[in-house]
Amino acid sequence: MSAVADALALLRRHWRVAYLVSLTATLVNLVPDVLRQVLVWDDPRLVSALAVDAVGFGTGVLAQLWVTGALAGLPAGERPVRSGALGRGTGLALRAVRQAPGTVLVGVLLGGAVSALLTIPASVAAIGFDRVLGPLDSPGVGAFAVATLSDVVATAVTLPFLALVVVLVAGRRRLTAPAAGQ
Prior knowledge:
The protein is an all-alpha fold. The protein has 7 helices and no strands. It has helices spanning about 1-15, 15-40, 45-70, 85-100, 100-125, 130-135, 140-175. Keywords: Membrane, Transmembrane, Transmembrane helix.
């Protein structure tokens, strides 16, 4: 589990660049995130809410993979590389899950807990508990904006942490494995 502690230390050292990359992905993800909610604004069906959540989960995973790929060189002191970040992040995530699924799960759970602490209280206060878990059912625009802003903050805060956990877990084998023929 040292990857979790190492990710926090790395995030502390490189917080400006890590959060700038995360904010970039979060703001790009904001467009489909808001559009998917607006498409079912007046729809009271639970199935619509679940479909919207599934799309949101998918776009969130894409943002996470992009941030992971962009920050892949951070442990080595390299700058973020945005070009090819999605493919690089996908490869790193697959390698990390194969190498240390428990550590990746801990990173997901810790990031999810922080996200929930940042999002749920503001969203419940703004749009109500039933609308957070179910269909939006036409919330006020101001209330929706507050809930959306809390989601943006939570996403921007948590993406780089899990990205660095994944990068560190995926990179450990490459850094510690003996060269071929030895």
